[in-house]
Write a structure and sequence with these properties.
The chain is mainly alpha-helical. It has 2 domains: about 15-440, Amino acid/polyamine transporter I, CATH 1.20.1740.10; about 450-620, HUPs (Rossmann fold, 3-Layer(aba) Sandwich). It has 25 helices and 6 strands. The chain has helices spanning about 20-30, 40-45, 50-75, 80-90, 95-120, 135-150, 155-180, 185-195, 200-210, 230-260, 265-270, 275-285, 285-320, 340-355, 360-385, 395-415, 415-440, 440-445, 450-470, 480-485, 500-515, 540-555, 570-580, 595-600, 605-610; strands at about 475, 490-495, 520-525, 560-570, 585-590, 620. It has a 6-stranded parallel beta sheet, with helices on both faces. Helix 1 (about 20-30) packs parallel to helix 10 (about 230-260), helix 3 (about 50-75) packs across helix 15 and helix 5 packs antiparallel against helix 13 (about 285-320). It is elongated. The two termini are about 40 Å apart.
Length: about 625
């Protein structure tokens, strides 16, 4: 087990309440809902039709291999985060951002599909609802947004209750069907299974790729690791075993019976509620009612889980600087991230409106984000294993799993050009927002507004206040440094991101040559927005360490280095403000070795300083 697997101290065990059974319940509440709408989606696809059971069964094997990898992701990343964190570990923050965008698209579509499917199933009991599916789906999402803003979330106990009810109901349906089948009906089942011998390689590849929707929701387990009982590996393994058993007992069999036994007119006209039709046909109204009530409740819970998962992804991307920190703004009364919740709800509503509740289109879009996230998670784990020197069968099977998922994704991209275009546009919009946030396009525009420009200095002071209160840090805020600048004058300031002995040595030589005895070392912590809990954010540990090391290095060369810390929405603005406040004549920075792609995404401090420094302050570059 890697070091990351044990990164969490045992002392937080009291916070970890998810037993393997509860892990199963939460994951099954997501992945178990697919059986209610996937058989109909697959049947209506011209490349699948009656072969849906075959492809679901074949994809189940791929699901097993990927599930094994997700268990490992759980214990490797005990803080959760799924595809975002595994891609960050294996690749770069930029790839992690891409993974976050893929899973966000998946969450958007989960909310949309689950809410629509839930209303369709309720219409089995209340037919009048069938004429208002879009409106009621939108209303249910708005209600969930309000519930999440208030802060009421589903507990693991509720998930266990609903998952158990749905699982028992589905198993009961399977048993009822098996025990009531007549010889001619068994014959139809065997005829459906016998079609496997006539399937061409191309047809199998297409059907296999499309059937991955039957196992959407697998990513949910990687978000649960922070709440799993220790050891995480054991909890995740047993929980996943329960998930696999539950899926095996329900999804392939219900898909087979629905496609092989139900009349064509039902499969075509009522594809969104095949399982309730199956229950009514072989168990009567009581079984249909049980399926509708448990299934619709589970679907709406899945929509809620998707909203929660989506806004947590937003917050994770905000923490990495890919989204404005305003997205994490908390409701003053309830303490919930109201803006993130609003966005996580409005996007699915917009998707539902423009798709007009078309489940086929939504299903196609769903596959775009789902398989993209699966592929990045799987590939990320392969890279980590390879770096660790692993070369056994497990690694090669894992790589084969990644190839399988990526091929399925590529086939979906090719077979569904409209969905590929829409999905790409959604990801592109997210990427533009991420790049704009990183490069401070939006924050620079925001802080040019008169009201914001007036409030910004107060927010900056709030951001520095916690540093000033913590005397143990021995680091000055910019406000404190400005108050002593006349006592400790200097013409030289270095701006650092990490300790840079060469840069500091050059600055000391310059200041000594001018007859000075003091150098200012500045660390600017960037907040993409200063209006979200700025007074409660702790100084970055990397900045504290860089400043302290600079002080020690200065002492060794007989120079006083004064460590200064400030915050800003843009590092360039913070450096410029510090240079003017401390009355230095030169700013020294280290030459970056970053790539062009990095500068595109992160912005170039050197270019910004060149444009914005006052004429009387020189910019000197070391290295």
């Amino acid at each position: 087990m890697s070091a990351q697997a044990t990164a969490k101290p045992a002392a937080d065990g009291h916070l970890r309440q998810l037993t393997p059974l509860l892990v199963w319940a939460v994951v099954f509440c997501d992945i178990g809902t697919s059986v209610f709408y996937v058989p109909g989606l697959l049947y209506r696809n011209p490349h699948v039709g009656d072969l849906a059971p075959l492809f679901v069964s074949a994809t189940f094997i791929g699901f097993l291999l990927l599930a094994y990898k997700y268990v490992e992701i759980c214990w490797r990343i005990p803080d959760g985060g799924g595809v975002v964190n595994i891609a960050n570990m294996a690749f770069t923050p930029v790839v992690a951002c891409l993974g976050g965008l893929f899973i966000s698209v998946s969450y958007f579509l989960t909310s949309a599909i689950s809410s629509i499917a839930g209303i369709h199933y309720l219409s089995s009991l209340f037919p009048v609802l069938e004429h208002h599916v879009v409106a009621l789906s939108v209303a249910s999402l708005l209600l969930l947004a309000i519930v999440n803003t208030v802060g009421i979330r589903e507990s693991a106990g509720l998930a266990l209750l609903l998952a158990t009810a749905s699982f028992i109901t589905s198993c009961t349906a399977v048993v009822m069907i098996v025990t009531h089948l007549q010889p001619e009906e068994w014959s139809r089942v065997w005829e459906n299974l016998a079609q496997v011998k006539d399937v061409s390689g191309t047809t199998f590849l297409v059907g296999f790729s499309l059937a991955w929707l039957a196992f959407s929701g697998l990513e949910a387990i990687s978000q649960l690791s922070p709440a799993m009982k220790l050891p995480i590996k054991a909890s995740a393994t047993r929980g996943m075993i329960y998930v696999v058993v539950a899926m095996f007992a329900t999804s392939p069999f219900l898909t087979l019976f629905a496609i092989a036994l139900l009349p064509v007119e039902i499969k075509v006209g009522e594809g969104e509620k095949l399982i309730s039709a199956l229950g009514q046909a072989y168990g009567g109204n009581w079984l249909m009612t049980a399926i509708v009530l448990s299934g619709s409740a589970l679907l709406l819970l899945a929509a809620n889980t998707a909203i929660i998962g989506c806004y947590h992804v937003f917050i994770a991307l905000s923490d990495r600087g890919f989204l404005p920190s305003t997205i994490a703004m908390r409701n003053r009364r309830f303490g919930t991230p109201q803006l993130a919740i609003l966005v996580a709800t409005l996007v699915p509503i917009i998707v539902i409106y423009f798709a007009r509740g078309d489940m086929d289109l939504l299903g196609d879009l769903y596959a775009f984000g789902l398989l993209g996230a699966f592929g990045l998670s799987s590939a990320g784990l392969d890279v980590i294993r390879w770096r660790e020197g692993q070369r056994g069968a497990r690694v090669w099977i894992g790589i084969a799993t990644t190839v399988m998922v990526v091929v399925a994704w590529m086939v979906n991209l090719y077979m569904k050009p409209n969905s590929t275009l829409i999905g790409t546009l959604l990801v592109a919009v997210g990427a533009i927002i991420a790049v704009g946030t990183r490069r401070k396009w939006f924050s620079d525009l925001l802080y040019q507004m008169p009201f914001v420009a007036k409030v910004a200095p107060t927010r900056i002071q709030e951001g520095e206040a916690q540093l000033e209160d913590d005397q143990a840090l021995e680091i000055l805020s910019l406000n404190q440094a400005e108050s002593i600048a006349q006592l400790y004058p200097s013409k030289t300031m270095i701006a650092i991101r990490a300790h840079n002995p060469g840069l500091l040595s050059e600055a000391i030589s310059r200041e000594k040559g001018l007859g000075g005895r003091t150098v200012y070392a500045l660390y600017v912590e960037e907040y993409t927005g200063l209006f979200v809990g700025s007074a409660n954010r702790k100084p970055a540990q990397e900045g504290i360490e860089a400043l302290k090391l600079s002080v020690r290095a200065g002492e060794a060369e007989g120079m006083m280095v004064i460590p200064v810390y400030t915050v800003s929405w843009n590092a360039v603005e913070g450096i410029k403000r510090a240079a003017e406040s401390l009355d230095v004549s030169a700013i020294m920075i280290g030459a970056t070795q970053r790539t062009t792609i990095y500068h595109l995404l992160r912005g170039h401090v050197l270019a910004g300083l060149t444009k914005r420094l006052p004429p009387g302050i020189r910019l000197l570059i070391y290295g």
